[in-house]
Amino acid sequence: MDQLVLGVKSLALLLFVNFVPPALALKLRRRWDRPLDLGRRFMDGRPLLGPHKTVRGLAGSVLGGGLGGLLLGLPLWLGLATGLASMAGDLLTSFIKRRLDKSSGQDVPGLDQFLEGFLAVIVLAHALPMGPVVSTLVLAGFCLAAYYSSAWYKNVFYSRPRPGYPRTFHPRTRWREYRCCRLSSRPLMYLFNLKEGLLYNGFITSVFHLAGLTPHGRRNALDVGLTSIAPTLPGLPLAFDGYRILFATDLHLDGLDGLAERLRELVRDERFDLCLLGGDLRYGTFGNFGPALDRLARVLARVQTRDGVLAVMGNHDCLEIVGPLRDMGVQVLLNEAWPITRGRHRLWIAGVDDPHAYCCADPRAAMQDVPPDETAIMLAHSPEAAVEASALGAALYLCGHTHGGQISLPRIGPVLTNMRGPRSMAAGLWSLDGMAGYTSTGAGVSGAPVRFGTRGEIVSVTLRREEPVIQKDDVARPHCI
């Protein structure tokens, strides 16, 4: 029995060491990914190891082995030695594969797993009284588990899920899609989304409830208003002077009973030319989005527009909602532009994918069809694509995501803005290098169904044309003979 327990611990340690490098690659992206071979080639002219073997991966495996060993009740030195031996086998495997003219990252079943596990098992078997049978079982178990987990990892993170996949492809994006949008098992949803499931929906909500603040905060959250702004845009065609847009973002409609009814009341007697949705339709970042879409349909039934409804994706949204939204008559913009026509003139709405969590915003792609002499409004979920939008010539940037902090303190302002950018862009009107911007506090709530110190909103945006300033010297003078 003792040998079997040691075997299970050894197998767990090996799998943990094997797990660390790809996990670091997902989290850190390109940071500290310097190739171990520094790009050098062997005497056969082929790479020594290849770009997939990095300083980050080596250090992560060794240190991960030490940490894993301690967690499993094994000596620190043994964990470190196991990580080092496993990486030595992995590097030797890469060296052999390059000599066989196999490209970096190309699978060779058996060879990919054997040396990595074999050298580590030798270290473990020397230090622990497992015996040859258990040691062999550990090696076999590792090879099988490492092979199938690698196949799953590459299928989920390094292969496009379907033809015509519309997003900028990155493994970290695919991981978020997998854990937030693809899982159907409720226990697995919470397991892979511990931060959202336990911290926000569990702990923070419970704190407000135990403090007796939930009823008051809920009333605040339902006190949504209609804010009116009238940005002046240089170059706006006269045909669009006075053009009225309803901008609604961060609806989170399934997170607060009564919100949909409040929004229907606000827009009941209003007339708009266009409706723009800034993303985040559902309350959670994972789970069923059906209830949010049902409530959205009820709200949009009251919205009266001439040019329809356009939307972008937020960090709470999944690609799976694009089809149902289009069935409802909502055109979803995924790094693309949509023209609104008045006679010979056009106004462009350039919509980018989520800049915050999925990190798929591509303002350049969204603006590529917009002629340089025509006016474009950039629609984004968060302010985090504003710098590039300004550089590309957008006249107005509409976004949300921050909720204005949702909880704001006197003299201090928002407790958290949850964005990468200056606090001056967290709520309200702002400008950036000649581009006007507005960050809405959003209609709904996130994390906890309360608001304090901020008010939810939907926004009426009336576009105004900036009349050219006529200098005195530019005034036409009569020609004197």
UniProtKB/TrEMBL annotation:
GO cellular component: membrane
Transmembrane residue ranges: 134-153
Family annotation (InterPro entries): Calcineurin-like_PHP, CarS, Metallo-depent_PP-like, Metallophosphoesterase_sf
GO process terms (BP): lipid A biosynthetic process
Family annotation (Pfam families): CarS-like, Metallophos
Tree of life domain: Bacteria
Keyword terms, alphabetized: Hydrolase, Membrane, Metal-binding, Transmembrane, Transmembrane helix
Ranges for domain Calcineurin-like phosphoesterase: 244-404
Listed PANTHER family: PHOSPHODIESTERASE YAEI, TRANSMEMBRANE PROTEIN WITH METALLOPHOSPHOESTERASE DOMAIN-RELATED
Protein name (record): Putative phosphohydrolase
Organism annotation: Desulfocurvibacter africanus PCS
